Every structure is written in C-alpha cells, then in structure tokens.
Predict the structure.
Amino acid sequence: MRGYAPYGPTGVAPPVARPRTGPGLVRVAGVTDSSARPLAVFDLDNTLADTAHRQRFLESRPRNWDAFFAAAPQDPPIAEGVALAVESARACEVVYLTGRPERCRRDTLEWLAAHGLPEGRVHMRGDADRRPARFTKLETLRRLAWDREVRVVVDDDELVCDDAERAGFTVVRARWAAKSAALEEAQEREGRT
C-alpha cells in the first residue's frame, strides 16, 4: 500500500494547509506553484473500477450499503480508465477523488495497488457526509486547485462533470461503464458514493 497516502493510523486526512501569507508572502488567486507537477484527478467507481457486479445491492429498498461497499474489492478494473490514469501519470501527479466513505480506505488502497494504478493521494468522503457527490467533489477540487494546477478531472457522474466544467476545470467524462439508475440516484439523492 506504499505510496497511496493512507494518512496515518486513523485513516483521516490532515487539515488542508493554506499557503502562508505575511510580510513578503501573498496568496494571489489563480496563481499556482509552477514548479509542482499538475494534478490529474480520477474518480474510482465506474471510472476506474467496474461496479456492475455490486449494483444489485442498491436496487432494493432499503439499499444495502454495507454489502455494496464490502463487494468493492472484487471490482474489475476498467481498461480505458486505467490506461488514462497510467498515461496521465507521465505528465501529472495522479490524485484519486471518490465518493466512497472513509471507512473503505483500506480496501480502496489495496485495490489501487493490486491493479497497478499510479501512486497518489486518495480523497474520500467522511463516513457521515451525505451531501451529493457534485458538492463534495467540487469542494475538494477547489481545495486542490488552491495552489496547484488541476490539469484534468476524470469522472463518470454527469452532474459532477457539469459542475466541475462550470467551475473552470477541464473534464473527461468517463462514459466507458454501463450506467445504473440506482447508482445515479444514490450519488445525487443519498450522498453515499
């Protein structure tokens, strides 16, 4: 799991450090650290990982979220998404931004490593955060863009893509996995993935 930034024994990301300001140090909006590699930000579910085999857990009421996330380690990789992540790693630092809850971090890190994806930080939703993915992800994207260039965002969620484009991010819409109405509803209405 080396290289996937598990954020220590608690699995919780540290607070975001803001660029310092003070005498001689001023943060100018839109100015990034040009010496750092740009970021390529990748979603996981239905962008890199095929969730089709576990979507059945979302089709009944009540939805079985524990089973849905417990089955994630068996997700097959999506060749198109993995190839794009590997290619992006040549020029960019790859970062993963998922709607999966923090409690899935260990399984997620192991899945990334097992499928040969580039090393990178993994940003996950807090376990109790039920906001729609388009809100949580855009918040994280803006935080990432605070002092780094975000060259591209790759996601399958059309609403996330729409909001990211409106915010000025370059987006690749991951349309290579089969759509699931249950998953789309869960992403938008229940804030679960």
About this structure: Helices lie at 65-70, 79-88, 105-114, 133-144, 158-166, 181-190. The longest strand covers residues 93-101. The longest helix spans residues 133-144. Confidence is low (pLDDT under 50) at residues 5-29.
